[in-house]
Amino acid sequence: MAAAKTARAAKSATEAFESVTSASSEAVRENFDRGVAALSEASAFGKQNVEAFVASAAAAQKGFETLSARSVAFSKQAMENHVAATKSLMTSKSVQEFVEKQNDYAKSSFEAYVAELTSFSDLVSGVAKEALQPINERFNAVGQLIQTGAQR
Question: What is the pTM of this model?
Fold first, then answer.
């Protein structure tokens, strides 16, 4: 009888040990799987961040090329206008005509410069918005990730 009680106690202890071991193994497996999933999610998130920075850099480069081309074109046009104005000034028949031509050229040059500066400023603003858009989207994604993490 004592042997039977001992056998039952041993069996009960073995079953309890196996139950705890099984539950512990399951918990470890679940936590490991969650950890791998979180690592995969973090890796994908990091990849998206890198892609956003690359897209931002590409947009900035394209914008700078556009700005540079625009600046060169304006400078070339201004130089051509200056040469034409100089030729026109040299054909003046009087001081009065020279002064009038000089004033007209100064006025038109200033107006062209102001118009180009305004247009250039708008273009710079557009380039900045376009270059920063992918990065802003990633900041929004970080905010959403923080919110979903807080809700978990």
Answer: 0.67
